[in-house]
Protein 1
Amino acid sequence: MATQVLYLSQVLERRVLDPRGDPVGHLGDLVVRLEGQYPPVIGLTLRLAGGRGIGPLSAFTPWDLVGTISPNAVVLSSARLNLERFRRRQNELLLRTDLLDQQVIDVSGRKLVRVNDVQLVALGPMGLNVRLAGVDVGLLGLARRLGIERPIAWLGRRLTGRDIDRVIPWQDIEPIDLAELPGDEAGAGPPGSDRTATRPIRLAHSKLAALHASEVAELVAMLSAPERTAVLESLEAGLAAETIGELEPEMRADVLEDLPRESAIEILAELPPDEAADTLAEVPQDVADELLQGLEPAEAEEVRTLMAYPEDTAGAMMSTSFVALPSSLTAEDTITELRRLAPPADEIYYVYLVGENGEVDGVVSLRDLIVADPKQRIGEVARARGPVVTVPATASKDEVVEAIDKYNLLAIPVVDDESRLVGVVTVDDALAEALPPRRHWLGRIGR
Amino acid sequence: MSQPERYDEAIAERSTEQPFGQPRGRRLGVPAWLLDWRARVLAFLAILGPGIITANADNDAGGISTYSVAGASYGYSLLWMLALTTFSLAVTQEMGARTGAVTGKGLAALIRERYGVRWTLFAMVCTLVANLATTVAEFAGIAAAGELFGVPRWLSVPLAAALVWLLVVRWSFRSVEKVFLILSVVYVSYPLSAIAAGAPWGEVLRQTVTPTFQINSGYLLVFIATVGTTITPWGQYFIQAYVVDKGVGPREYPATRVDVLFGALVTNVVSFAIIVATGSTLFPQGITIESADQAALALEPIAGPLAGHLFALGLANASLLAASILPLATSYTVCEAFGWEAGVDRSWREAPAFHSLYAFAVVFGAVVALIPGLPLFRVMLLSQVINGILLPVVLVFAIQIARDRSVMGRFASGPVGKVIAWTTAGALIALSALLVLVSLAPIFGIGGG
């Protein structure tokens, strides 16, 4: 038997027959085990006929008891039935409950899509090696569900000159965890409900790891709040922190509040202090205090200092990590020192020279260091550059952006009222502030 | 090296200082608020979000016309029903807000996820019909308001359509809504007018607590329209979307709940005043409203010869506010249900379905309102009848989802809310059935009303 394409909607609720051809019930759902590129179907849930009085009873039937499967009916190869109620195990996905009509992430298209139908392929000599091939997100999937696939397919071909089906292969799809329900943390739901009995599922989201954190952030920002928390919780801490760092502070704060305290602290510790401060400013005071307690004391103090600056000022925008070295070093030694410190990309371009009281004496750029005579002291290099452009910590967002633009800087030093260097605003932080935020339909920022 | 390698340590030492101005932090200033009454008022206004907006948008062109007709034709006799509807409105709005806060999703998405494609299609067709009818009513309201100022409808309606498009696509709805909210103080003129007209308050109160009922199609139409304009299908979607959009979660929900309940009360105080004002002025003179200038007479006791202009201002404001929400909400709702890309900041190429639907709703509303000789007031009333008949469909989905423990967890609806919501839906279904019967009866020669 050749490879056969099958859709979930074609088999759901079809009769399930015993080997003699007598109906025993209806196909309630298909269970796949999430492994490999195209996960195999490992069983079905059977809604038994004549469930009156005891409510619909779902029994799990492993796939090796299935004789044939077709859009008309499913025939079992054995008359033995296991009446034990179905319970989902780790790494199992219910195609109808978890996937059909739900939102999933289209990793290749980098957007959320709604599943109109699920595509399966039947392989092997008997066509019994059934695998999850992809999700149908097109109009044709909707039409199939409504029983008008043929006329719509014909119409689509006439109008567009090509087939209008749109199936995304499973390898590009990341399903979204069903979030835990408020109050259902123990996992105990009312009996008789399939969904509750199988909640919550925890997925690995390994496909998201292939994306850039900012892309993941854009995707999770579109999810509902409970789903967002569930997805972020499942990500590896590093990626989760980077992703959260890319979210708008308000949404970031909501996520941190929702996460278990330990995860929130872990993620907070991964955030740069300036981002951490922006986030905590949006969190209620008691929660912020609790989270700060979890950080290392020095880090917590730094975040507290940053939180003390009013919103939309240079102080609130700045980062407090930068490279400051004594002016007596030579260019060569400075480069050696930079190599040892290995600061992140946005901190390596400028080395600040700071006087005894912490005031900025000068600045040398990475370019200056490379083109300078290796034996020259960086104090001299800085003097040749002329005076340092700084902004006071009280400067407004617009003033900072203007200064960076006017003097063509990659970062601008921020000083307090006694001219002491307290931080730097890098060009990408300034750019993020200068760009107009995305709008949702009711005007919410950052969707 | 004598100096720190990174500057972090130096910062940490000085961290106890408060560098500049007010520190950031959401709940830092609480004690100060309590001392300053202005801050307290501001704090109160700040939580007045979704509830008040929906409430105000509820008193739209369809609302003003329906309540005016109700008062003019039936005096105070529908007030008892309005009083009961206040509870229904509070319960249904609370339900929508709670569902939004718990799930973080819109009603259309939940209907799709819970009930599949067929039921979703059914719900969306009903929603689309109700919303398009209401959109027509808003543009009819603009036309009627324009005519009171002597502006012909071929000028006012296209202008309004262009304005609505600009407001929504070029600017954000949020920045516009404040203007509309401020303008809605015009509504204050209704209670004032009711007082100036010397409404017999004892009688008003008596009729508010005494249920009466008539079985004829005119009464049933107004009855259904009054419920259908107070609790609307789109309002059910809107409150939920607004709560989701505001980022309200279960934690922040208690404040939102107060806001929503307050909003329901305010809406119906205004509705109540409109009915009392028309019931005190037009009803005794036997004027049943057929046009906007007649409806404006209700404001004569307070505004005298300016009544027409005052009424037109209120009507235009209400219509524009609702007209800028409805097509947008409709388009979002449908796209959300079917998983189509949506957003005013998406291009036509990125979100063709969204933009087509939005454009269709605006153009449809405007074009129908432009039909020469269209009885504007009757159209506004009829649109609310359609809303009332289709409301149970949306309500049943909303009720079922809000009471579902597998969706709502411990926030699932309690018994009191469920009973009120079901009674509302059930009463509307019964009334609609009765309306059909009463309307059809003469055809079959029964009763002959």
Protein 2
Amino acid sequence: MAARGNAALQVAGSVGIALVLSMNGVRSWAQFLMPPMVLLVTLYWVLFGPVLYGLGFAFLIGLLLDLMLGTPAGEYALAFCVTAYLAQLLEHRVRHFTIPYQCLVAGALTLMFQLIMVAFGLIEAGGTLRLAQFYSALGAMLVWPLLVLLLGRLHDRGW
Amino acid sequence: MEKKIFTKPVSAPRMLLLVALAVVLLLADHYTGVFAPARAWLETAARPLYWLGNVPGKVAAWSRANVAGPGGLAVENRQLQAEVLVLKGQLQQLAELGAENVRLRTLLNAQQTAKLRPLTAELIGVSPDPRRHQITINRGEHDGTFVGQAVLDGAGLMGQVVQVSAARAEVLLISDERHAVPIRVAGTDVRAIAEGTGDYRRLRLRHVPPTLEIAVDDLLVTSGLGGHFPAGYPVGRVASVAHDTGQPFVEVTVTPVAELDRSRHLLLVFPEPASESPHGS
């Protein structure tokens, strides 16, 4: 029970820190490089966390983002859920991959997530599609090793 | 990396069920305001997160203000004094123009324009989604902020309030793709609609016929039509006018005058009914 409580605390803490990091948006071209930190942390827990943290967990984190950021409720939830499902499909392989290959998977999953969000944007606003909207996949690939290192440390100590 | 004893079951039906639930939530949110209480509660709960997220910005602002040497401060002080002098001069002229305007409007038997009361606000957050040009400011219901209120910076129109909670408000910037503002060309009074493009440095005018009198560097101001924005605030300058002979409309791009991606100190505008109106109307 103590281990489970400890895991919940670590998951909540890491998601909270990711939320803080993503709220401090850089408003320039560099903003497009900013990886979706909350998504990456969620994917980490879906891939490497306890059994409890699966699709439902990703859905709830997405819904939390929807309510906090003022997006229509269900938008992030749907995108998080589908991306987490794809991550679960690759789970067995990813856990045996070396870090560079994991980075490629993180980039591909972020790209999928951005595709869903861009599709929502097009439906909502009839906006334009720009290549810059997918740069965050590059940012995700750069950040992933650091994330695995930091959260992996927590993991080793936790349970 | 093998840390788990059990692997998670990968379930497509479960995913489809959650996707269906998300669609139901989207529809429910669109057609009813069922999530408003949850959003209000989360706004209060997330206040420390916003504060923390804003710390780097505050540190940067503090270091800019305090780390500059005495020489830098003296130069800045001189510049500010010169600026104050220029503004004071313009203000004197404005008072005279205001009085003249009232006299002329009385002569024309026209209704006086509403006076506007400004309130300063500070930027405390930016939407993490680069597609959404939305910012959070530190004024909310407690300060009288309301949905649809115009937000300015020192140079011109920034956007409008789209969501208000107790101590915070979300502002949609004029450069967001979902935003449009009725404008007129200062001088010629030609009317048009300026739409956001998703680029902080560019707006576009929609459906401008080639016969319209509009040229590069023309100043565009809010027209006040539609009732959302007070009239006469600068929106942008025409950057380019391109006419493709095969097209029925001219492509006009506009550079906003407000520093949409930089301003941290903003003004909220409150309309105040005119205290005196000619002929009691």
